[in-house]
Structures are given as structure tokens and as C-alpha cells.
Fold each of these.
Amino acid sequence: MKNRGPTSKLRHFRRAQEGQALVLTALALVVIMLMAGLGVDVGYLRYQKQQMQKAADAGALAGAAALVYLSPKWKVSAVADVAANGFIATPSNGITISAYNPPIDPPFNTAPDNFNYVEVVVSQPQPTFFMRVVGGFAVVPVTARSVASAAGSASGCIYVLDPTQAGSYTISGGARLTAACGLFIDSRNPAALVENGSGTCTKATYIGIVGSDSGSENDCFPGAQPVSDIAPFADPLAGLQPPAVPACAGGPPTWSPPGNCSYNPNSGLHCTHSATLNFGTYCGGINASGSNTTITFLSGTYVLEGGGMHIVGGATANGTGVTFYNTVNAGDSPAYDKIFINGGSNTSLSAPTSGPLEGILFFQDRNLPPGYVHTVNDTISGDSNTNFVGTLYFPLTKQLNYTGGSLATAYTVIVAYDLTITGNSMINDDYSTIGGISPIHSAVLVQ
């Protein structure tokens, strides 16, 4: 008779192993299910966080964009864009939207220019599915934060504001414009951009038109082709504050030598010989003529209160750190006149590098009487040795005729109602002298 004791014990051990495997498998399934449930919760919370972050980013950008135009409704704009991205604060959904200017969190809350930043914080408790079973977390607070600056550098350096005119931007006669930045044309006309004449062309990093172009481009340079049907845009310098305008009284500021210029309270200052001018208010404007006449402008703001400024007949104008504000004076005749610079080959004018008019070379009054709105043509022109460094801001002129800028010109920004290029021009975008930022600001995310 055989002894079956050990075999029986082995069979019993095998049955015990099978039972343990069943238990371990059950436990493993529970762990896997918990991990899967946790993965679902984490994935859902991450998705909500991403959506919330997009909304916060949009809100911060909208608030900063409103600050660019000095709008007091920056907070309304920020909250509205958060809502447009699906997060609307109501008493029942637990969503909170907070917008701050300046920010309340570091590092931008203590930045020297913290008034340029908008911080948006969006929060909402999010429900969980499996975490409430395991850990008792029925909801998890999710928060997204974003900060945008209103002091970013805009991509464009040429803005044409006329919303309807054909040829609102026109270049002809073999002229060539080369811009190291973007050209934006607000006209919805199907022929808003016009190039005429053999060899005529426009080269820019971007050419955007609300309407379209005339189809006459010569494509003499490789570069960005016009993009039609872009969104309409507003005056990018609408928030720029004008300088104070003292009343005309007692004649203009002094000049030297005294005998090289004459002054009439109605027709302004006339110089037919070289002179150095002090900044201040010039009632009746400034006029200079003659090939041997060089006008030197000392640094500061020149208020042309009626009469405009005329540099003609080969005269030369030079000035560093200057702004010319062209405005009206009802007591002068004419009460308002154009800027007309068609001077000598060594004309060089540059804008201030600091202060409230940083980067602004010419500034046309935005509050002209109706009779002068879109009726006056302004001209700023030179040759290859001419430098216009700064912003040429003519939002109400009928047409700005522009030619100028040598290869040495650091930057030029043009904002005009209508713009005609009448000669070869080079426009650069080296803003290093004014902190590396264009005088035209845009909203950018910084955090």
C-alpha cells in the first residue's frame, strides 16, 4: 500500500495558491480601478485648468489692450473676455473672476511700471468622480492666473486709418518702400493699396488690409504678399496725451542770432538765415527758407499754434529730442496750416527718448475744427541723407506725402489717415534708444 500523504498535501497547497491568486487579482483590480479613476479625475481637472487658463489669458490681454488706449473700462473688458471663453461668474456656479491693475502678486506688483500690467485670476471648485469615494474630496478648487502688459511692442510701424478710400495707401513713380516691420491698412475698399509705375514696390514683414489691393503690385522685392480681409483696427495712438497748449501772448520763445528771423503774431516766425530756436509755443507757426539756412531746434516740445511749419527752398532743419505739436489758434490767419518739410539733404530730426512724448516726432491735434479735418495735405520729405527718427502722427490729415529715411535711421513710425509714398524710403525698427519698445504699444502676455 502506497503512502499518498505528501501528494495530498501538495494538492492542498495548490488549491491554497489558487485562492491566494484570486484574492490578489481582486485586489489588483481594485487598485487598477482606483488608479484609472484617479486618472479620470486628474485628466478632467487638468482639462478644466487648461480651459480656465485660456480664459484668464484672454481676459488679461483684453484688459491690457484697453490700457493701451487708456480706457477706464479695462476691468470690464477683462471680465467680458473671460466670460466669452465660457467662464461667467454667477452665484450658483462658484466661478470668481478677479482683475487687478496693478497686479497684487509678485513679481509685477512691485515692478516700476506696474501700472502697465493687468492680472486676471479665475477660480471655480470642480467636482470629482472617484476622489470623493477614496479620499472624500467631492470638489477640488482650480485656479488660473495670467498677467499681460500694455507696454509690448507692436508688430507694425505703418498704420493707414482711412476706413473707405481707394488708394488710402499709394506708392507710385518708381518709389520703393522697405520696412522692417508691418504695414496695416484700415480701408475696406477693394483697391485700398495701390502701386503704380515701373519699379514701384512695397516690401514689409507683413502687409494687412481690411479691404484688398488693386492687383497692380510689381513685386520688385521678395517679401510678404498683401493679406486681405483682416479685422478693422482703431487708431493705435488714440490714447496718446497731447501736450499743454499755452495761449499765444507776448510773441514766440527767443532765437539766436536775433536778426536772422522775424516774427509776426499772425504769420509766425520767418527765418531766411541760420538760427537756433528755443522750444515753446510759436503762434502763427515756423517758416524757414533758403539754401544757406539751417534751423537748429533745441530739445523740447514745439507747439505750432496756427500756421504749421514750412521748411522749404533748400533750408535744413536739425534737432534732437524734439516734438512738434501742430494745433489751431482762432486768432491767427491761417488758424491752422500744414507741416511742409522739403528741405536740404542734411535734415535730421529725432524724437525725445524719455518723458510723456517719448518717441513722438510730429503730433497732429486730434481736435481740429471740422473745416480742417481731412482737408490738409502734409509733406515730410528728404533724400538719402535725411533722418526722421520718431513717430509721424497725422490722424486727421487728408494725405501725408512721405519720402525720407536713410539706412542709418534707427526707426520711423507712421500713423496717417491716408499715406502716399513719393520716393525711396527705408523704415527700420531699432527702438533701443527708447527702451527697445515701439512708441505704438500692444498687449502681450508676460505670465
Amino acid sequence: MDFELSDIQKQIQQTFHEFVERRVIPRAQEIDEKKEFPHRLFHEVGELGFFGMRYPENVGGTGSDITSYCLAVTELARGSLSLAAACTMQSLMGTFFLYRFGDDEIKNKYFIEAIRGKLIGGICMTEPNAGSDLSGIISMVNVTENGFILNGQKTWVTSAPVTDFLTVFAKTDNHEQLSIFFVPTNLPGVLLGKTIEKLGVRGSLTSEVSFSDVHLPKNYLLGEIGGGTKSMLEILAEIRIMTAALSIGVATAAYNEALEYAKTRIQFGKPIGTYQAIRMKLADMSVQLETAKHYVLYAAWLSEKNLPRHKESMIAKLYASECANNICDQASRVFASYGFAMEYPVQRYFRDARFTLIGGGTSEILKINIGRELGL
């Protein structure tokens, strides 16, 4: 395995690094405080080609490899996890099923515009009583002669208040397994529910959505009746690797802030980083960050080579997200009282990092599944 990034991968990383330094970091605190969707930055990310990185050039994408995608994700998360969460939703779950199953109408009118950043998409899976247990989904689609009628309620829908279309997982009245449907949000019966106030990633808006007798034409079925779970498994490993990359980004931001502070904060006549307690704390943070970073890139490499990566993607997500939360916690301790002050970004990293523990499967679910992979 070659651990050296290619020239193209380095260029992509540098492009997003410079964009984050110039455009994202100066606005990150404002995005968090105002709790507003960062429309302008979202469109600028689209202009960089991020939303099309995973898709081939013949549909308007850039055909980038997964390592390049993860490098870009990490940089965006280093600047603002709110922005990165909204952008990764768009680039992966929000558009994949349109690309995979959409007809010419859906692709030309919605998918291509979405990967340009002109339209915003989301995904509806979680329900009030169905989170990790997708079999508990009760949203129902009745099959009619002319198409489908959708009813149900979804929650924790990322970007819901600003979406132009949604990908909805529901059961049909003629099949017990999940199916996937394309639902433009301007259709009658699509209703935006309450906005969920969150601890972190507050610029990535999250709301409930309900569907009341929403009529869908036949071509809005994405894939086959009952094929939803199988289709989701196609990108599940990539979702976990992407979430791990988000974790690396926010952890990197927290670590860099703590390291710089330890070098410049003077106590008892010298920088606090010269004291063993702080030095060891930063050393532990560095070890965790570098280990997580390399394993995430390893999981991305496996995915690129189309090698088995089910267990590896879970390990990457589990380890990177737990490390990110520990690193952000330790960074706030380096800042001591200032880590408790809202004017310093370390408090935002501490809050935002909690998001990474949820997306792609909770740590508890991942440990159970990893245990199964071990034959237990």
C-alpha cells in the first residue's frame, strides 16, 4: 500500500484548505451563533465541484476517488462542521439514489442541478420510533394504478427547511421491506414540522417532515419495491468513512487551537505547553489524531479498490468519532476557563463533535456489529 498522496489528491486537499482558511473559518462562529443555513458558502462549495466528486464526468461530476473526497470533507469539517454536515448530506445520501435509480427527468431536472449546488436535497429515514432499527419504519405508501400515495412522519431530517427534494424510505402496502421514493418538497401534502434545536452543528438545520396523502407518479419510485435496505447497503460503508472524515476535521481544528494556545499562554513565567501535564495531554491528542487519520485513509483505500471494508468502515467511524470527542474535550481543558467561554472556538468544536457519534451508526450499534463480524 502506498501511503503517499498523489499530486491530484494533494491539489484537491490544498484547494479546499485554502477555501476553508479564506472563506469558512472567518464565518464559522457566525454560522453557529445565528443558526442559519450558510447558503452562500454552500453554493461556493458547489462551485468547487464538491457535490459531484463522487460521480462520473458523464453526468456532470468530477469522478474523484474516495480518498480525495475524504480529504475535502476533512478540510470542510475543520472549518465548520455545520457547513460540512450539510455539504456531505448533499454529496452522498441526498443525491446518490437519484443518480443510481433516477430516470432522465429526475436526473436532468434535479440531480444535475443538485451536484452543481443549485438545488438542495435531503434524505428521510429516521422516524420518532425508528432510529437504528429501520425495520421499525411505519411510513406507508399505497400503490395505486397511476402511482403512489405517501403518508408518514420523519424526524432528524438534515437541511429539511431549505430542501428542494427529499429521498424517502417507506414501506408499501404490498411489501414488508423498505422502498425508496423521490419527493419534491413543493408537492401538496409535504409539510415541514418543528425545527430541532441542537447542541451543535447549529448551522446545519434539522427538522421534522410529515407527508399527508402525497401523490407520486410511478417514476418517483427509486429502484424496486422492497429494495430500499439493499440499496442503502451500497453506500453504508462510504457513509461511515465519510463520517469518520468529518470527525478528523473537527478533531484537527480542536488540536491545532490547543497546540497554539499551549505555546502562547504564559503561566508562572513560561508557556503552559512546557509543563508536563499539558505536554502529555497534547501528545495523547496527537497520537489519537494521527492514528485515526491513517485508519480512515486505509478504509477509503479499501473502498477505492472495491475490497471488503464492511468491518473496516465501522472501525474507522467508531474510532475516529470517539477520538474526536476525546480530543475536543481535552482541547477545552488545555484552555481551562477560556474553554468555557463562547468567544473561543474550542467550545464549538466540543459541542459539534457530538454529532459525529450519531451519523453512520452510534458507537454502541457499531460495537455490536463489529462483534458480529468477529463471529460473536
Amino acid sequence: MKDMKLSVCLIVKDEREVIARCLECALKFADEIVIVDTGSSDGTLEIVKEFTDKVYSYEWNYDFSAARNYAFDKAGGEFLMWLDADDVVTDENCEKIKKLMESDSQFDMAFLPYVAALDGDTVTFVYYRERIFRRKLNYKFSGAVHEAVEPSGRIIYYDAEIFHKKVKAGNPLRNLVIYQKLIAQGICLNEREKFYYGRELLFNKMYRESIAVLEYFLNGDGWTENKIEACINLFRAYSAVGRIQEGINCIFKSFLYAAPRSEACCILGGYFADKNDFNSAIYWYQSAINADNGLKNGGFVNRDFCGFIPYIQLCVLYDRLGDYKLAKRYNDLAGNLKPNNESYLKNKIYFEKKLGKQE
């Protein structure tokens, strides 16, 4: 029996709707599939046993890292890869992973793009995640929620995309409850956990609490990408409680950590457009198009802010300034990205009439 090259590991609970879809993908490139179940009662176990005999039970202890590390401990491949039950890998990307594993594999840790949102077939939200690890280096996840592995060793960035495709809404309080359990136990959150705790508070509309936690996080020595994201999240939280100017100040504060990101530029574009300062708005939307978004630094990138949103807003702004040809040009650029978008199609009709009358 030849040595196993790649073990694909999942932790699951009540994933009947999606687990077969995921495992059918994994079979195309995995030498071994390891499943750790944390308490399914919906028939998930019966499904996974059709794909692998390496199925283990794990008593859930509100710690995703512990469960993922347990799955890695049960794997026998030279390399270990994690997936979530609602992840999908297209045939093209399955072939890319196979090619990577059939190569000399001169890496210890591979980062792959994680596609978290789509608009039709267009990728709109993506970020790199640590995905494949050399087993003998004994990599470990840390963090009870939003678990991660600290980068080390020989690192590569590879273009095989993993698509995260949910079919049902999760429990919005799940992660928040885990953090609050840690705090109730007297555990001090580290810098990364403070950031994610503040973000969970925001997602659950606990805006004032989110502001307090994220401002506290910014005073620490957390990771640069998290600080940039915290500034953008603070803008949302401050805006939700009517403190717009303080939110805008947070956007400008994000520029202290790295070059302006597209989302921050779009926020400023909208701010100045609302003030009828169209020239300033145009400056920031154009800056959004040209921004470096730190994708390979691990930052979250919503691609709509990199192209479609600034294009469609520049169309509106130039239309208000009376430069209809330039406005149409930006609408065409937006249409190149999203040809079926309702705003683009309405604008297209509008410019056909407007420029036709002028001619």
C-alpha cells in the first residue's frame, strides 16, 4: 500500500443537507477522509460512512480548535487539509489540488483562496486561508472560535479555490455565546479574539458593546489586517448609533495601518457624495479601483468594492455633473463585471435615450 499523501479532515454536526456534496469533491483529491462528529442526530453519520470508515465521535466542548486538532491527530497522510461540511471544490480546483499534491510538494503550509460569497457566478468575497499542512511539523489550531494556525515554515499561496456555500442560516449567537462563556470563566481574550468578539457583537446589533471592544482592541498590538477591518467595523457600529463623524474618523484611522483599502475608499466616496462634494467622492471611488487590498496578507476582500460599486457610483456622479459620455463609460465597466445587474441595465437604457437625444 502506497503512503498516503493527503488526508482531508472535517468536523461536522447535523450536516445532512450538504455533507455528501462536500465529500464527493474531497474524494477526487484525497487519499483519506477523516470525519469527526460532534453530536449529529439528523442522519449525517449514516451519510459520511458511505465515504469513509475513519469516523470518530467527539464530545463538543465549545472549542473548534480542539475538535480540528483531534481530527488532525486521527489522520495518517503526509499532508493534512481541512474543509467545512458546506464547502465545495469545483472539478477544475480539484484538479489543481491533485496537481499540487503530485508535485514535489516543497512547502509546509499552503494558503488557498476561500470564496465566501458569490453574486451569480461572480466571486464577490474572498480571502486566503491556511488550508494544507505538512503533518510532521505538528501544526495546531488555536482559538475556541474563528480558529486559525499560526503561519510558519515554507509557505506558498496557491490558486485552487474553495467555495463556502451555505444552504441554511447558522445560529447567529453561536460564536458570541462561545466568547461570552470564555469571559465568564475568567479567561482573558487574546488580541485576535478581541477583534472577533467585537465583530460578533456588531453582527448581533450590540453596537455600543461592539464599539467598546473594538476600540479596546485598536489600543493593543493586534494584527494589521484585523486592525484595518476593526476600523471599518467601527464605522458601521458608530453609524448605527448615529455617530457618523466618529465612524468616518475610524475610516481615516485605518490609513495609519496600511494603504487605503477599496471598501474604506468606497465608504468615503459615499460620505462625500451625500454632502454633494462630487469631486471628492470621485477621488475616493477612483482610489477604490486602484487600491491594494492586501489579499495575500490574509485580509478580507469584498470584490464589489474593488470594481462594481465604484464603477456604478462614478457613473452616477458623472451623470450629475453632466458628463454623460464618461458616466456611460463607467456604467459599461460595471456591466462588464455584472451584465445582469438591475442597476446597470436600467442605466444602459437611460444612456441610450440620453445620448441618443443629444446626438
Amino acid sequence: MVPSRSLPRLFAVTRPHSAAELTALLSYTDPQQPLAWIRGERGCVGIGEVLRLEFQGEDRFAEAAEAWRNLSLSATVDDPVQLPGSGLIAFGTFAFDDRSSALSLLIVPRTVVSVHDGQAWVTEISTEPPAAEPALPVALSTGEWLGTTLETNVPDEAYLSGVHGATELIERGKLEKIVMARRVIGAMRSSDDLRVPLARLAERYTDCWTYAVDGMIGASPETLVRQTGGLITARVLAGTRGRRADHDADLRERDELLGNAKEQHEHAFAVQSVVTALAPHVAELQTSEQPFALRLPNVWHLATDLEAVPSDGGSSLELTAALHPTAAVAGTPTREAIAAISELEPFDRERYAGAIGWIDAAGDGEWVIALRGAQLGDPAGEERSITAYAGGGIVAGSDPQHELRETVSKFRPIAEALAP
């Protein structure tokens, strides 16, 4: 826990700015350590670092929420823009498992450049009263990108063994669903400009959140929770089919997904876990009547949207704590599924399938599940490590080879983004 007395007083000044355009947004952030949050026609990037708060263990979300509340209460915020993400803001990334060795972080940038619904602004954050008005940072030209090839379409006996073990537990009635993940290890040059793969993800996956926080990068299709302007929304994804180049074959994949009893069953688990977790914190909770097929460039997903009104005054980070982990990334029952994952997966997921996003001084924010991405090591020396992850839900009747092929489809966004 971070003691309140050790937290600095922060000053945040936001001013509208006409020069910041989304097409150039990534040019303002650090090429090797970018902070970014982009989707479609809006987004924000961070430059520099005023404060970094670290958390670990089962209380990481609660400690982060309390620390952020204390910071926000003591902060001086000058924000005439009053839009989501203006004023004081922190980017965050949280580990999947309570026992993970990975640090969970809140990072307060020195400068934030943002675009929302055609409006742009710049925020300066400091530990001293500002001496000048916020200025648009200098845009940096795109650097060199040699990239790397991730070998995702290879035999993975450890993953197949894990799927076999998961199906045995399900057949014995121990669990209804377990989400099994696999990982691929690679390396890239430390000097490569990470804004190149981020731009590829943002341009290709416009229905996803392209994110970059402390070397965790990717494009997530699954909104864990969004709380802005007195409204809470979430999107649940569970059930997947790979896309096909042939139009008719692609539509058959979509229709098979929509009509598949196993996938519908898996999806219902995931939706119910979110509804159950949100219910104590919201009013007027509504969901789409039936799952719909979400079309992404690499896969079809079964999707359900949820909408509610907050009822207990909690922040978006506290809602995130209540929701994580969902059945979509853990299983059902959740506690037992996480225990099984720790036995069946031969690695620490670290921040994969954890929460990643941002929060502002009002407690509003957007958090997604860290999917379709990779964790990059620190850019020290000539090489930088890459650990990419993908997974899928295992239920009764799951076929290990099919599940392996599904992970290949899910690796595709980050593999293509990191390619030379």
C-alpha cells in the first residue's frame, strides 16, 4: 500500500488545442516507451512520467484505487475542456493473477495529448504549480523498424497437454470452463520504433482499443468497463471463429459461430460472470437481447454489450476490481478455474488478460482486458524481449487441435503488427 503522506500534490492544466490530430497522435509519444490509448477517431498519448505507483498481490486494485483517490483529492486541476480523459489522468496496467511476479502500475505522464469527438487538447501535469500554459510537444518523425517474426503456427505440446488436462477436469465435473493460454517468445532490436506496430494496430483494428503501457502493447476487442458521464458500459466476448478470405466461406464461419451450442454456452458463462460482478455496484443493468457476431479483421467473436448506471459512487478502477477476472479469461467457477490455470499453464501470465486502461480525477475511465498483445522487456542493450500471448475457453467437447488453431488466429494482430 502507498501511504497517503508519501503521495505528492499534483497540478494538472488542460487547454484546448487545434493542432493535435489523431492521425499524428502517436508522433508525440516516446518511440521506445510509448504511452498510448487509441480507438477509431479518439485517443490519447502520454509523454514523460511525473509519478509511477507500483502494486502487487491480491489487494493491488484496491490499493491503486485508494492511492488514486487520495492523489485526486489533493490535486489542483484546471480543466475547461471537461471531456473524458481531460484534466488529471493516469495510465494503468494490472497483472492477471494475485500471485503474479509482474508489477501492476499507475503511471501519471508529464504531458498528455488527446483527441475526442473532433476536439483536441493538451494537459500538463507536475508536482509544482505550472509556470506556463501547456504547449503541444514536438512531434517526432518515425524511426527505423526492422521488426521480428513471431512463430505462432507451430506445434505446442505444452499447450495441447494443458487443454487435455482442462477437459479432464471438466469431464470429472470439477469445472464448467477453463481458459487456457499459450505464449510465444521472441526478440527485437531495442532501437526499433514501437510507434510503427502501434500505428498498424490502430489503423487495422479500429473497433479495438490500441494500448501501450510500460511495454504492454496490443489491440484489445474486449472492454472490461467504461465509466464516463454517469454511464457504465462493457462488452463481453467469448466464442471465436477465424476469418476466411472467401466471402461466402467467411459468412458460413459467422453463421456457424452464431448457431453453435458449445460457443453459446461458453458465451453465456462469460456474460453471467460480468452481470453478477456488476450487479452490486450499478442500477438499471441492461444487456443486448442476443449475442451478436463482432467482425474483426482476424476473427469473428460472439459479443454482448452491457449498459448500466452507477449506484455506489465507485470509480472505474473499483469497478474493474469487481469484474476482474471474468469467465471470458479465467473460467467458471472463477476461483476454481484460476487455481486450475496455475496448475495447467507452465508460465506466469503476468499482465496478459489483466486490466489495462486509464482513469481521471473524477474516477471515470476506460479499462479493457489486455488481449491480442505482447509484453516487451526494457529496451536495454541491443535486444528487447517479446512475450506474446493468446488463449481460448475450454468447455466440455473442446477439441485440442481446434483450440490450438484458434490461438493462431488470435496471435495474428500482434504478429502482423510486429512483422518486418
